[in-house]
Amino acid sequence: xxxxxxxxxxxxxxxxxxxxxxxxxxxxxxxxxxxxxxxxxxxxxxxxxxxxxxxxxxxxxxxxxxxxxxxxxxxxxxxxxxxxxxxxxxxxxxxxxxxxxxxxxxxxxxxxxxxxxxxxxxxxxxxxxxxxxxxxxxxxxxxxxxxxxxxxxxxxxxxxxxxxxxxxxxxxxxxxxxxxxxxxxxxxxxxxxxxxxxxxxxxxxxxxxxxxxxxxxxxxxxxxxxxxxxxxxxxxxxxxxxxxxxxxxxxxxxxxxxxxxxxxxxxxxxxxxxxxxxxxxxxxxxxxxxxxxxxxxxxxxxxxxxxxxxx
Length: 311
Prior knowledge:
six-stranded antiparallel beta sheet, 20 strands, mannose-6-phosphate isomerase activity
């Protein structure tokens, strides 16, 4: 039986109301994040169905490793979010595992973005123009941010791989699905001198940022692999030690071959159903769930776009 999950919403200074397009009952006009598949202690999802109904994903992961086909004590490795950048996000960077474990007590944060929607001429910040550490430090210290940040135009359907150490920011008017390591550590470099609702500028982390920015990761975006499987459109966006992320554009029926003992599934467009173990479940835009070792003979049927990830 798939584990269907109840989203958790986060208010953000840059958030808006675009998450309502997923038929979510969002809490306010500044809803920036939907934590869609999360076992992170800062916002674990509640399971909505079956024998685990009412339990958090964090608890079930800790108590029933066999359900996921794992035997280690590591934390649940992935986190899926949908982000509504009604305003531009701060320019930031995330540490790698080594730095984060030493300084923050959790794993680092390599992530990737699938652009769900974007206004005309929307752009992100992706990487920096500094050639070496000395130039980077000088430009940060002297706030030469217009010259430092590399800007890229984006449109719906684009994909960006953002490894730890990559300077990045989501621009205004962009809706994305983010797949990431299960970490909540962010170092802000620049925040446009915005003030929060208390009139305070948000904290920056310039020294940490200078320590973790990886100048060798500037050309790190992945090369998607496209193919047709069972007459359905399949794209593998990225596959590495952190995660594999796939897109399926389904028009009809797909017998899904799970590549791992569990996987994370988000319906980002359309509707349909999933059949597994002689049971059928309705799927709609904004549905998020996990397929586990208990799910055999999985069949998707309908007209819908799925983002699937696994380790």
